[in-house]
Each structure stands twice: as C-alpha cells, then as structure tokens.
Amino acid sequence: MRESKSMSETATAPVLTAKDFATDQEVRWCPGCGDYSILAQVQKVMPTLGIPRENIVIISGIGCSSRFPYYMNTYGMHSIHGRATAIASGLKASRPELSVWIVSGDGDSLSIGGNHTIHLLRRNFDVNLLVFNNQIYGLTKGQYSPTSEENKVTKSTPFGSIDHPFNPLALAMGADASFVARTMDRDPKHLQAMLLRTNQHKGASFLEIYQNCNIFNDGAFEVFTEKGSKAQETLFLEQGKPLLFGAGSDKGIKLDGFTPKVVNLADGYSADDLWIHDEQDIYKAQILTRIFDDPKVEGHLPRPFGVFYENDRPCYEEIMALQIEDAKARKTADLDALLKGKETWTIV
Amino acid sequence: MARKQEVLQDVVIKFAGDSGDGMQLTGTQFTNNTALLGIDLSTFPDFPAEIRAPIGTIPGVSGFQLRFSSDRVFTPGDACDVLVAMNAAALKANLGALKKGGKIIVNTDGFDSKNLRLANYPDGENPLENGSLENYEVIRIDVTKMTREALKEFQMGMKEKDRAKNMFVLGFLYWLYGRDMSNTTDFLKEKFGKKPDILDSNMKVLQAGYNYGDTTEAFAITYKVEKAKMPSGTYRSVMGNQSLAYGLIAAAQVSGLPMFLGTYPITPASDILHELSRHKNFGIRTFQAEDEIAAITSAIGASYGGALGVTTTSGPGMALKAEAMGLAVMLEVPLVIINVQRGGPSTGLPTKTEQSDLLQAYYGRNGECPMPVISASTPADCFEAVYEAVRISVQHMTPVIFLSDGYIANGAEPWKFPATADLPPIHVKFKTELGHGEEKLQPYLRDEKLARPWAVPGTAGLEHRIGGLEKQNITGNISYDPENHQLMVKIRQEKVDKIAEYIPEQKIDSGAAKGKVLVLGWGSTFGAIKSAVSELIAAGHEVSHAHLRYVRPFPKNLGEILKSFDTVLVPEINNGQLIKILRDVYLVDAKPYNKIMGVPITKTELVEEIRKYL
After folding, report:
1. Mind listing the pLDDT tens digit for each residue in B428-450?
2. What is the pLDDT of residues B167-214, one digit of tens each?
3. Which residues of chain A make contact with B238, given a CB cutoff of 8 A?
4. Can you give the pTM of this predicted structure?
5. Given an 8 Å threshold on Cβ–Cβ distance, is A74 in contact with B463?
6. Residues in domain Pyruvate/ketoisovalerate oxidoreductase catalytic (chain B) (predicted)?
7. Is A347 exposed, middle or buried (CB count within 10 Å of its CB: 0-12, 13-18, 19+)?
8. Which domains, ranges and CATH numbers included, belong to chain B?
9. How many domains does chain A have?
10. CA distance B224 to A124
C-alpha cells in the first residue's frame, strides 16, 4: 500500500533547516512560556537527525504542551487527554519505520495518562516521550498537578495540596524504561544534547523537561535554571565522569554504601573517591533518580540532569514483526483454507 | 445387537452439568458431529460468569443447548426433548425447559445426599426416587462408577479419571443417535497427542459409553435425524465470534490493508482476540492493551498510519472507549469498533445476552458525534456483516460500530462459507501526492461520499496535522468560528447519512411486502422472529419479517416498508431501543415487545405476541 517512493526521494532531498520544520500556524503559548524554547530546540535538532521529514510523526495529548504538533511541519496528531502514548503505540506497532515522538505534560502523561505511560515504557516501543513538566495545570488555569510539591496553594488547593508528588524518573525506572533522562527549558545546549540522545536511543525514551509556566507557576525551577544558584543546585551527569557540582566543580557526590553524600574536594577528596557515572548501571540509576530533595531543605543534594539510565533491550514492534514473519514462513496465508476449516460437508 | 431405529425430524438436547464437568466440550463435539452429517442445527451455550462456581450448586451449572433437524432451524429451540443432567443442580435448573414426556439422562452419582443438599432439595427428597419425574422418561446411568470401571487399569488419580465422565455421556449419545465417532477421536488425538495417558483414558471412556448403549438391553430404540434440505453447497459449522474474526481477516486480505487489533479481554468478546491472534501468518497484529482506552486509541494510531484499525469489546468497554470514538469521528479515520453486547448496566450479566447497547452506539458520545452502526443477526452472518463494516469504514473514512451479542458470539450454526474469489472487492485509496494546483494537503477536502483523503505518514509532501479540536472546513486548521462549527457538524452528519446511498435496500425476509403485521428486528432476534413468522404465514396469516443489518443509517426504503403494514412490531432483548429511534425517524406508532432476562426471545412467546395484532 505505501510506496517506497518517499524513502528513495528523500535520499537526495535538500538539506533541511529549522525553518523547514516550522508551520504557518501562529504559536499561541503565553509570552514567556518555556514551551517556546523547547519548540526552538526541537526545530533545531530535527534537521540534524537524518530522518526524512515525512517519516516523523509527533503525537500529543491535551494540555499546553500538546499544541506542539501544530507548530511542527511533520505529520502530527493532537489527540485526547492522556492517550498520546497509546496512540503512538498502535502507530509504531504497525509502522515501525516511522520516527514517533510523543509530546506530553505532567498532567497528560502522569495523571490522566499515567497508565499508558508505564505500559509504553515496559513494552519498550522505540518512541521518544517528551514530558514537559511544569508542575501545574496550565491549560485549565492553575490547579495542582501530580508533580506539584506538597502544601502547594493553587486554585483547587486554597489550603495547600495534600497530594504527595510523583518522582517522574523514579516512576519511569519502576516501569523498566530503557532510557531515562532529565533536562530543562532554560539550558538550550543541554536540551539539544538530550533530544539527540533521546532520538539515538533505540527503545522507549523518557525525557523529562523542566518547563517554566510563567503564568501559573513561575519560578518553579528557578534554583536549577538561574545563574546564581544553578551551579550549587544542579548536578550534570556525564558518562564515565565523576559526579561533580558547585562553583568550579568544587563539590562531588560519593556513595557511602547505598547513600549518596556530598563531599568538598577541598577536604582532600579527589575525583577517584567520587561516584563515577555509569548509564548502564541500573542499581546506581535508581539511586540517582531518588536524588529528588526539596532545594529548600537544609543539607539537600543537588538535582541531577542528563542521562540517568540507558539499556538496550528488544523493542516491542520488532518482536511483533518477527513473530509475524515467523508465522508467515511457517504457514502460507491461505484464506480459502482458513474459511473452509477442518471439517466440511456438502449438500448437493 | 439389532435395534429398532426411529427417524425423528427435530431434536433439542440440553447438556447440563457442573461448570467443571466439560459440558461445553461435550456439546461442541456433538454439534460438530451433527453438522458433518448435513443436519441443520443451532446452538445456545449458557454458562455461569464464575469460572468455577461452588461445585454442585445451581449457580455453578453450565449448559449447552443443541437443536438439530432435518428441516431448516433458526433457533436452538424453546424447550428440550432430552436433558442430560450430570448432577442434581443441573436437573433442578433445567427441568422447567424440558418437554412433557422428554428424556432425562442422569448421572445417578450426582444425586447423592451432598449433591441434593447443594442443589437445595428438601431434606430426604431425591427427585430420582420420589416419583416427581414420572412424566418423563428417565435413563439412569452411574456415569462416575462406569468411568472409573473403564479406567481401572489406568495409573491415574481418581480425580483425573473422573474428568473423563463427559466422554462417557458423549459416547452414549453417539450410540443413541446412531453416530460415527471419528470427529471426536480425531479431536482427542489432536488435543491430547502429547499426553498419551489422557488421550487413552478419554478414548477408552468414550468407547465405553458407546458400548454401554450398544450392550445394555434396556435401550430398545436408537434415533436418527436425516439430512436437512439446505441450499446446495459446502458447509462447515461456525461460531459467531469465529466467523466475525474470519470476516475481519477476509476484509483485510481483500482490501490489502494490514490489520491491527487493539483490544482488552472482556466477556463475551475475548474469543475474537483469541482467534485473530492465531492467524499472524495473515500479517495480523493483535495488541492486548493495558485497558479499553488504550485498546481503541492504539487502533486509532494504527489507522492513522494506514492500517485497518479494529477494536473489540463489550458494553462496559464501550463506555470507556466513548471519548476515543469521538476522536475517531473528528479525525475521520477508518476504525471498526466491535461490541459483543451482554447484559448491563455496569458489569451486569457478563455471560448473558442482551441488545441494550443500541442507544449507546447511536448516541453515547459527547457532542454531535454520528457513526454508522452495523449489526449481525446470526453466528454465520457475522462474517458478511463485519466485512460490510470494514468496507464502509475504509470507503467512507469513518469509524463504524459493529454490534453482535453473547447469543450470537457463542452460538454455532452451519455456514455455507464463501470462496475468496467471490468476495466483493474493497477498494482503498491512499492519497500519495498533491493534486493539480494543490500547494499543500487539504486534509478535509472531500470526495462525492464526503470522505476525506487518507494521507498517511511516510508520504512525502503531504505532511499535515490533525486533531480533536474543531477544524476549519477543507484546511483542517483549528477553528473556533461559529459558522464553521455548524457547517462541520452538518457535514459529519451528512457524511454518515449519505452511506444510505451505498448500501442495499431493505428486504423483506419472510412474507409479503405489505399486510397486517410487520415484525421488524435487528441482531440476534433473527431466528426467533423468522421461526415465529414462518409458522404464522404457514397458518395463513398476513405477517412479514424484515431484519435490519444497517441500523445507522437505515436503508433508504425502510420508511416505505413501515408504511405498508397496519402494525409494526419490534421485538428486542432490551427495554425498547430500536423502537425509540424508529418512532423518532419515521413517526411510526410501532409496538414494542421486550424481554430483558438475559436469554433469547422464544418462538412460542413471539407467536403469541404477534397474534395480538392479527
């Protein structure tokens, strides 16, 4: 049914730029929204991936972030609340050659669509799930979300939220995600690097993007994004490198048994004493995702950013296709034989 | 031993026992055996919702009713000629449906004091001994004892041995109706080929049951039912969910579309998944999703990518899928949503039949959200009806709801299966490039059917975005314009209404094109209505029967047909749903006949009802 034309044509297609991925639709996010930065980085990264534009599909659910597909000149679907992950599963299962991206928010993928998110991850479809986490419901004008901090005063919690928030990356690890990473809207370089890694990973990639909602939850991630505090409060993970942070990388994280501890290099510690990051180590990745301290609490650990975990395991759509190929090789598809069945009788 | 053989025209047997007694298997085997002889038949399995309800109790009784006849039959029969009762509870639950003078074949071992107590017989009362069965012919067999006796050489536990009891009964019935047993011995060989002990024990007990009839002098007569006079051709026996699965496979093959089934297990629809998952060699992808919502939305994703998206469920699942159906209506992608109806509301009666989701199919979504609705009327009819559902879905670019029910799903009947070469074509058009003068794809530019183009990802130059927000006519851009919204609502409605131009006109199934009473049905009431109407026509009455496959939109000529009769009677297994729509659409003063007991309408009660209007 589909012609190979598109693939062969694009082999000689002109090199595309970010502009080629923009649409004629007016972008309607609030001025100053973190989504603008994410859109810009995605549009910058897309032309570098070597994927024909027609093979890229962006599927979103409902929420501010879910307007995303309208602004990307690829195939796209703005679906219903929480279900983008399930729609993407069906699409990827039947069209494994497509590059499928899911754009979602904390409400969409962790509240109403929480179930589909964990199942997408455990099945390991080769798709990219971008979760724009702003810790608030923006589109419905300011109720708390499943990632909002406890005691948060919002329109629906005038006396403070009594909900305990999700730790999204720990949840992803619990669902056996094969790629788990975090980045932020205010660090374009890191965001681009993470988008590239997300795309490179074969399997379900979970990328949490801290995104500022300047209308309903302004400054939620300020301590991680602003110059004055960023160095102290963030820990950028790099494969094979020691966990260093602080002004001039003067501090590090050391594992004391299973417990991460902050040490000052000035106290005689060297890089050799520190935790060396290994993305393949599932046990350490789980400890890393659990570093989720409230920056307001004394003695807290810095928040990690980067790739926490990556693991290669077979993708659902591949195994599904293999089973079908195998079944075809074993038994010819003979519709007449199927309809006839084993036992028949004839009336003359 | 030479015996007298009596020829019968029509026999109804009910196999009843504990849900662990293997009555469904016994019934199915006897059914297949009957079918292979060219005898017409209709079945009605009736089992509890519990997998293993308490042993020996009435809620734990599982039944399988089979009617076979040398005449054409369209229902499994209102009352039984023969009742096989494996225990006291099975007798108590089914005696009411046995004809006066009917045969009861009882397993006497199932009538000990414990079984009698579990079946709630009063203390000291045993129906086999207190004369309460004197109006019936009771055949007493200690099946348990004879089974154990037949297996006395076998090195297996008593519990294992007792499992073969149903084979004894089956063997005995094969003898009683003069049958060859090879279909069952072949079946056992295939099923237990890798477990020689179980195979041998089952074969031995089956033969023991046959020999018991043959050698016991007490049984003087055997019976025979001749071949039915059916249209010539080659037949097989088929169950509703099975023929539905075949219809989907055939439609996928003929249309050239790869099929994707997104589904979540639910009674009584799960067998469609089971059947389809076995046929991966046809390129079928079956996806057991995490819930009903993921089941339909994954199918929407597949359809968006150019596959034939299908989802199967029953009432509670339909309720969960409602929002996603709305999305499919807005996206205008093909999708077949199959509802094998069961008793509701809520969890309702999972294993019992009902037709109570018609209004849900019509109206059960937010907003103005029209979808075509197609229904199947018998097990074999599922094939053709679902094939039509696929055709309409892909040619009109619309989700389609397909209604079956528990009675159709689990029932079996002879099927004159088609040859692949005779299946009508299903033409599928993908948009592969921009049209003349088109600068970019107009996703909502329509053809003469008002269908929009199916432009799938991977097609260069046709990149576009669609979604659940209201869209501008033609361009598909988001639009909140009031005039545009009204226009789009009207277009989506007209698109569904227009399908009436692409479906056959309504036919009268039995009787004249005008007269006193028209009995109008849809779905699984077909057999009962056909039987009742045929009987009344034979008695010289002016009655006709029409049966709807296309429930939305209705065939173009339906209004004319309704006007041609003094009375329109609408029997339904619900509280009156089709009749509401008919009254709304045609302003016709139709009369309802409703039965909401989880069981089919019988011919007898329907004849009585129709007579009121003659």
Report:
1. 999 999 988 899 999 999 999 99
2. 999 999 999 999 999 999 999 999 999 999 999 999 999 999 999 999
3. 341
4. 0.94
5. yes
6. 20-211
7. middle
8. 4-225 (3.40.920.10), 233-503 (3.40.50.970), 515-611 (3.40.50.920)
9. 1
10. 59
